[in-house]
Design brief:
The chain has eight helices and no strands. The chain is mainly alpha-helical. About 6% of the residues have low confidence.
């Protein structure tokens, strides 16, 4: 693919994200993640945040943002921690573990300690270990898992 073709291809893939066919949207997310770039990242962030999107599309978008190590996606990923679909939170924690950084680590620690999804908790633990972070935490405040994490401001303060 020549560089001059990339913007056209990205525009086409972004258009496919609005297709009624979820298989096309799923493939478009994967391709956007493989191509990367600002426009692709913004489209992937939108897919992660879209509450009406197919759970597999959202999960793949999270995976691709992790693959791209996209720090600008951390807040969007955190907001998707309680999205529908049992695997979505797992994909989000994997992505946060690949991205790293203080905010991602704090979210992973909160998921490991409080999240209602056992697979997400285990995924967060694995990500924290890969990042060289502690997995035994003492919460500073009480937290009810069913409330969920809406943004980085909702993550409990942890030691």
């Amino acid at each position: 693919m020549a560089t001059s073709d990339a913007p056209r291809e990205i525009r086409q893939l972004i258009a496919e994200l609005h297709d009624y066919n979820k298989e096309r949207r799923r493939k478009a997310v994967y391709k956007l993640g493989m191509i990367g770039g600002h426009e692709a990242v913004q489209a992937l962030i939108h897919a992660v945040q879209n509450d009406t999107e197919d759970v597999i599309v959202r999960g793949r978008a999270a995976q691709m943002l992790g693959h791209l190590r996209e720090e600008s996606a951390v807040d969007a990923l955190i907001s998707a921690l309680n999205a529908p679909g049992h695997q979505t939170a797992v994909h989000v924690t994997e992505a946060l573990g690949l991205i790293g950084g203080d905010t991602a680590v704090k979210a992973l620690q909160a998921v490991h300690t409080y999240h209602h999804n056992e697979r997400a908790r285990k995924s967060a633990e694995s990500a924290l270990l890969r990042l060289g972070q502690p997995t035994t935490l003492t919460p500073v405040m009480a937290f009810e898992p069913e409330v969920g994490f809406k943004s980085k401001d909702d993550i409990p303060e942890l030691f």
